[in-house]
Amino acid sequence: MEINEQVEKILAYGACCDHCLGRFFGKRSHGLTNDERGKGLRIAHVLTANTPYVVLSDTCWICGNFFDDITGWAHKVCSALDGYEYATFLVGCRVPPLIAENEEMVWSDLSLSDPEPFKSEVNREVGKAVSAITGKVVDFKKPDVIVLIDPSTGAVETQINSLFFYGRYQKFERGIPQTHWNCRTCRGAGCEKCNYTGKQYLDSVEELIGRPAIEAFDAENAVLHGAGREDIDARMIGTGRPFILEIVAPKKRTIDLKILETEINRTADGRVAVALSHWSERSDVETLKSSKAHKKYRILVEVDGQIPAEKLVNALNTLKGVTIHQRTPERVAHRRADKVRERKVLDIECVGEQDGQFILEVLGEAGLYIKELISGDKGRTTPSLAEILQLSAHVVSLDVVQVEGPKEGD
Fold first, then answer.
1. Do you find a cis peptide bond into 97, omega within 30 degrees of 0?
2. How far apart, in Å, are the Cα atoms of 90 and each of 161, 183, 227, 282?
3. DSSP, res 330
4. Which one, of 57, 50, 54, 49, lies nearest residue 8 by Cα?
5. Where are the domains of the chain?
6. Of 68, 175, 214, 343, which residue is 20 to 30 A from 104 by alpha carbon distance?
7. What is the CATH number of domain 295-403?
8. CA 7 to chain centre
């Protein structure tokens, strides 16, 4: 079917604006807007059919004359973004079902092969108008903000994309979890047991780092993504644990990380310290989470009974380089799958004594349960130091002293 014949059949459906007429052939050529293309097709049809050119006066049966108010929609978008700092944006559209049904019917009836959907032109034309007003740039891949318009309701919805930055944290105080925990009793609602805070613990590493960040970015929330986690009763010292902080719905986006680092360290008051390195991306979070980096621990171990130093050294040498079989420890069995994991002890040695207890340093594969490596966890971990010594042994205190970050390993 020739184009003129297709145009005639399209116009036979009812009043059709130049935008929609042009869109039905939108992918056939470049250099023209759909509005310009539609005008040209209408004129060509008039000349071919030898009929008078009539300016559209009725409402377009396909889009309802949506494109007559592109400027109005652009101003709505700008108003929705007022108060947000952004350099790039993207406009999206929730296509009303009737418009989608109307245009798809024409595509199908006339077997059109090169139409451009209503959604595509709306996104482009409103985006161009917003860019002209604000001077901001459209970014299809990683915009700072996304604005969804809904022609059915006239509503405009903003989606502010998160910011991410990478750093390392040290935790000097035992008893602080890595992330926020809701109260186990009320599940965050607030109750007498949690003093109506909704929290199981008053503070977390996430909150100590996140509170100053939320204020600096004027954001809704901050989420900490760590390279593994230490137990609540363990310190994280040495080189610190790699983390990425996600800033949710920030109104500000250009913050000096060194100034933020100083503020976090000031407000955390020696409980937590950070070294912020660089801006990051959402994709880096998965890389960080999936990293199987080795971890080094310094632990204080108590062994029941007196043992010669030589016996301890021999026991530690027996564990060095060995693959340990660990069934999910009893202390975490309520929240983790019950299975046997195999992890290797890369190195273990005694580096001193303190009040009759031994100071050990352990380098292990990611996921090695250190407390159970010492105690045996009632036979759930084997071999263990307690099993080899044939004496009861347990960890008195534990510090993480080194965690490799992505690309920092061998």
1. no
2. 11, 39, 32, 18
3. G
4. 49
5. 3-160, 163-290, 295-403
6. 68
7. 3.30.70.3190
8. 47
pLDDT of 207-248, one tens digit each?
A: 999 999 999 999 999 999 999 889 899 999 999 999 999 999
Q: Is the peptide bond before 383 cis (omega within 30 degrees of 0)?
A: yes
Tokens 């080094």 locate to 296
d(CA 177, CA 160): 29
Tell me the C-alpha distance between 183 and 188, whole Å.
5
CA angle 43, 45, 50 (to 5 degrees): 95
| 323-327/381-382 β-pairing | antiparallel
| Alpha-carbon gap, residue 143 to 313, rounded angstroms | 58
Domain 3-160 has CATH 3.30.2300.10: yes
Q: What is the pTM of this model?
A: 0.84
- Distance between CA atoms of residues 90 and 282, nearest Å: 18
Assess whether the region 163-290 and the region 295-403 belong to the same CATH fold: yes
Nearest to 67 by CA among 120, 137, 133: 120
CA 166 vs CA 249, 282, 401: distances in Å: 18, 11, 19
Q: Report the alpha-carbon distance of residue 295 to residue 303 in Å, rounded.
A: 24
Q: Of 188, 216, 218, 214, nearest to 200 (Cα)?
A: 188
User: Which residues does residue 357 pair with via DSSP β-bridges, in sequence order?
Assistant: 354
* Domain 163-290 CATH assignment equals 1.10.555.10: no
Structural contact between residues 298 and 350, judged by C-beta atoms closer than 8 angstroms: no
Per-residue pLDDT reduced to its tens digit, 241-294: 999 999 999 999 999 999 999 999 999 989 999 999 999 999 999 999 888 888
Residue type, 108: S
Cite the active site residues: 231
Using CA atoms, how far apart are residues 329 and 397, in angstroms rounded to an integer? 17
Contact 291, 340 (CB under 8 A): no
Beta bridge partners of 236: 171, 400
Q: Could you count the other beta carbons within 10 Å of the beta carbon of residue 146? A: 15
Residue 144 token pair: 């700072």
The phi, psi pair for 248, rounded to 5°, reads: -90, 125
Q: Structure tokens of 298? A: 């310094």
Determine the length of the chain: 410
Closest CA to 98 of 120, 83, 118, 115: 118
Contact 282, 164 (CB under 8 A): yes
